[in-house]
Amino acid sequence: MIYYNSELMPDSNSATLFMVTNSKPFTRFEDHEAGIYIQLHTLVELSIASGENPIGLIEDYLGITYTDGRSAEEIAHFLAYTDRVQNALWSLEIRWKKKTDIKTENSYLQGGISKEKAIELYTQTTLRVYLEALSNYTNDE
After folding, report:
1. Mean pLDDT by 10 residues, the chain (141 residues)
2. d(CA 72, CA 121)
3. For residue 84, what are the CA distances in angstroms to 88, 109, 131, 135?
4. Cα separation, 103 vs 134, whole angstroms
5. Rg of the chain over CA atoms, in angstroms?
6. How far apart are CA 22 and CA 38, in angstroms?
7. Quick one: which H or E segment has residue 128?
8. How far, in Å, CA of 72 to CA of 111, rounded?
9. Are 11 and 121 in contact (CB under 8 A)?
């Protein structure tokens, strides 16, 4: 199941950054955050498998230098702890704290992007797409 909530992810950019798959809807930020870390690892693995250079993509899109290891785990860990990802997660955490009752199915009807658009975005998300969304993400909190 793709986890998307329009109150937590009100636009395409934040949906690209924060949508993940999970067997059931999240009820707290920490679980959602863990899902995002898993998603980052998956995106790095898929990038490597498709012949892309995830290190080059990270350096190009985020304007930072990477000098750590070459494994998918090391690259994903580095990416997860960049200032950009941490700032985006901080914004998401603020949204979670403002919520008193996270609804899953009804969230598609409360604004933001449609369920169909969310699914389309999720299935088209690659590391390159994720990094582009991250480089364009502005913290609105």
Report:
1. 85 92 89 96 97 97 94 97 96 88 45 75 94 87 50
2. 23
3. 6, 29, 10, 8
4. 25
5. 15
6. 10
7. helix 127-136
8. 36
9. no
